[in-house]
TrEMBL record, chain A:
GO molecular function, one term: proton-transporting ATP synthase activity, rotational mechanism
Chief localisation class: membrane
Entry keyword Cell membrane: yes
Name of the encoding gene: atpC
Record note on quaternary structure: F-type ATPases have 2 components, CF(1) - the catalytic core - and CF(0) - the membrane proton channel. CF(1) has five subunits: alpha(3), beta(3), gamma(1), delta(1), epsilon(1). CF(0) has three main subunits: a, b and c.
UniProt keywords, alphabetically: ATP synthesis, Cell membrane, CF(1), Coiled coil, Hydrogen ion transport, Ion transport, Membrane, Transport
Key word Chaperone present: no
Topology class, membrane: Peripheral membrane protein
Cited HAMAP family: ATP_synth_epsil_bac
UniProt name for this protein: ATP synthase epsilon chain
Lineage: Bacteria, Pseudomonadati, Pseudomonadota, Alphaproteobacteria, Rhodospirillales
InterPro entries the UniProt entry points to: ATP_synth_F1_dsu/esu, ATP_synth_F1_dsu/esu_N, ATPsynth_dsu/esu_N
SUPFAM superfamilies according to UniProt: Epsilon subunit of F1F0-ATP synthase N-terminal domain
Automatic annotation (TrEMBL), chain B:
TM stretches of this protein: none
Complex and partners: F-type ATPases have 2 components, CF(1) - the catalytic core - and CF(0) - the membrane proton channel. CF(1) has five subunits: alpha(3), beta(3), gamma(1), delta(1), epsilon(1). CF(0) has three main subunits: a, b and c.
Organism for this UniProt entry: Thalassospira povalilytica
Gene: atpG
Keyword Transport: yes
Listed name of the protein: ATP synthase gamma chain
């Protein structure tokens, strides 16, 4: 029996996933990091990107998250995501539409607040497209 | 004394009222189930966010560089109250109790010489508060609950507004008022301080039991806090909205249940009255006929 760590993926509206996994790769703000069982405790913010769940040395599941935070301790890895969609469910045209919308918003943004929001949306859309292309 | 026809039409009208209230009760019951599920599903996120923030808050402490959302603006002059009510009435004391709690708090703050500002989420709250505090209402939101329940985006809309006001220095302390869902027949009007952030007991408990490990932070504690605190505002507001909506449907369900029962009682009473007076009328007619026959 291989060692496992518990992955908990929580979005504001639901507990999406709570299951033991062998390894999970999380897109941290300062770079991707892999979480194996008995990982030392840490808290990191997440950039928009893809969480890779590994089983048997291969990627078994890929989930897109639009940013959030991850808390890792030796027993579990908790990811608080604002938005989480399996990569398989992402649609290229929707991501493209989102990108265009965000670009338009960024152009139209007048206040710093609107601008920051639009920039974030743009980043999320880009990450979605990137997730789809590889 | 009411005529038989009057009684009949009254019974008919109470019956149709009972039909309406019992239909509303059933609608509320099914909505309650959904709202309750949503509220329960959202709890893990809010809880974990709370413990994580609590841990971070203790780590950063009251350092110089602590974000404003945690440390506060250093003043206590302007209070913002966010009041969550329903858009619709007919739900017992639901709206009244939350409005009352908010009004008491606002009055107490004003008596202390503080300025009060209000954000009303839900039409009923704004309607009830606008007479007394019309000038202090800075924003109002209605139609939060759509067809598919409550969306996180509407919560972040309110959250963004609160944060924008805070950034502009429009207020110093923010408190939210909502009905916490306990059960279908019990909702508790709750006030919760949102800004500055108050750590949950969970983090302290953990420390007491000695299970809190030393965490690595990536990037720094401050950066994570600066990222998490605004998000927490949205999450707390979302949680309050869900609790409030579950409470609303619960309150409406029990109010409509009462109304249905009362209507049933009333129908029983009216039917007895109707039957009695009909009987009396028949007896009267018989007496008239018999005494008429005897007189012949």
């Amino acid at each position: 029996m291989t060692d496992t760590t518990v992955l908990e993926l929580v979005s504001p509206s639901a507990l999406l996933k709570s299951e033991p996994v062998e390894m999970v790769v999380v897109p941290g703000t300062d770079g991707n990091f892999g979480v194996l069982p008995k990982h030392s405790p840490m808290i990191s913010t997440i950039r928009p990107g893809v969480i890779d769940i590994y089983a048997g040395g291969k990627v078994s599941e890929r989930i897109f998250v639009a940013g959030g935070v991850a808390e890792v301790n030796p027993e579990r890895c908790t990811i608080l995501a604002e938005e989480a969609v399996p990569v398989a469910d992402l649609k290229a045209d929707e991501a493209q539409a989102r990108l265009e919308q965000a670009t338009a918003d960024l152009k139209a943004a007048s206040t710093a607040h609107d601008k920051a929001n639009a920039e974030r949306a743009l980043e999320i859309a880009r990450a979605q497209i990137a997730a789809l292309t590889n | 004394m009411a005529s038989l026809k009057d009684l009949r039409s009254r019974i008919a009208s109470v019956k149709s009222t009972r039909k309406i209230t019992s239909a509303m009760k059933m609608v509320a019951a099914s909505k309650l189930r959904r709202a309750q599920d949503a509220a329960e599903a959202a709890r893990p996120y809010a809880e974990r966010m709370g413990t994580m923030l609590g841990r971070l808050a203790t780590a950063v402490g009251s350092n110089e560089g602590a974000p404003k959302l945690l440390a506060g603006s250093g003043k206590d002059n302007v209070h913002l109250l966010v009041v969550f009510t329903a858009d619709r009435g007919l739900c017992g004391g639901f709206n009244a109790s939350i409005v009352k709690a908010a009004r008491l708090k606002a009055k107490a703050l004003q008596a202390e010489g503080k300025t009060v500002k209000l954000i009303c989420v839900g039409r009923k709250g704004a309607d009830a508060l606008k007479r007394e505090f019309g000038d202090s209402i800075v924003a109002r939101y209605t139609g939060i609950e759509g067809k598919k329940g409550i969306d996180f985006s509407s919560a972040s809309e309110v959250g963004d507004k609160v944060l924008a006001l805070y950034d502009e220095g429009e207020f110093d302390v923010c408190t939210i008022f909502y009905n916490k869902f306990v059960s279908a027949i019990s909702q508790v009007a709750t006030a919760q301080q949102l800004i500055p952030f108050v750590g949950e007991e969970a983090a302290e408990q953990e420390e007491a039991t000695g299970s809190s490990a030393v965490y690595d932070y990536e990037p720094s504690e401050e950066a994570i806090l600066a990222d998490l605190l605004p998000r927490n505002v949205g999450v707390q507001i979302f949680g309050a909205m869900l609790e409030s909506s579950a409470s609303e449907h619960g309150a409406r369900m029990s109010a409509m249940d009462n109304a249905t029962r009362n209507a049933g009682d009333m129908i029983d009473r009216l039917s007895i009255q109707y039957n009695r007076s009909r009987q009396a009328q028949i007896t009267n007619e018989l007496i008239e006929i018999i005494s008429g026959a005897e007189a012949l």
